[in-house]
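Posting this for the archive.
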Amino acid sequence: MGAYPKAVKIVEVGPRDGLQNEKATIPAATKIEFVNRLSASGLRTIEVTSFVSPKWIPQLADAAEVFTGIDKREGISYPVLVPNEKGMQRALEVGAKEVSIFTAASESFNRKNINCSIAESMDRFEPVMAAAHEHGIKVRGYVSTVIGCPYEGDIEPQAVADVAARLDRMGCYEISLGDTIGVGTPLKAQRMLEAVAAKVPMERLAVHFHDTYGQALANIHACLQLGVTVVDASVSGLGGCPYAKGATGNVATEDVLYLLTGLGIETGVDMDRLLAAGAYISETLGRDPASRLGRIPADSRRTP
């Protein structure tokens, strides 16, 4: 095992991946305030929203209003998810400087999620990549179900590597590897990451773990030992997967920060401000924070 990286970039996905599954409509003003609070915490990448059809995800119908309403701070990236060329055009209209595209390592999941095969999803990305190149837009790629699928079971690491390699060849500057249903364990996570890193340089890879079986932090720790330097997380553990019964939210950003700080890894993120952002959105949603740190009283909380 190698040494831990000196610094890690945390990609905050709470405003998009975290909120998209909420059934009750969240006002745009609340989402804007949420992103602004996250911006004040020191995070350098915050995925704001998704330009998907409101028919499929009504919660994100206000994508343009939210993106144009946030206070954009210098030095912070505010990517948005786009499913196709139409979504890309909407992102360009509001001045997005970075977008994300998504597919899966499982054919069945892809068809359930976006109603097309993996190959067809790649075809959809061609005009997105062309527009990105024309307008100088950075593109991040997501690969879902990198360890397990609710329909196909275990996913072979080589299948993940093949999909990631294709996104890399298309021009994605970074590729996030998502354990969408949270079934991964440290050894499986490492085997998957090693297979992908054989085809895509480690410095262009990120990990994205859900915490369904309570293994997310252990999986992240295992991947850090292999040299990964980008970790996706969602403040207060927001999120889930509508296509995977029982799948819980993303790993909580606060808990990831506690782990990284305890390992002596620099992130640039202020824990108090991050916790405040998590408390704000949790109170708005009418529930307690799902993060471990968020449930510890402030006067009892210790530093790692």
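The chain has one domain: 9-300. Residues 9-300 form a domain with the TIM Barrel fold (CATH 3.20.20.70).
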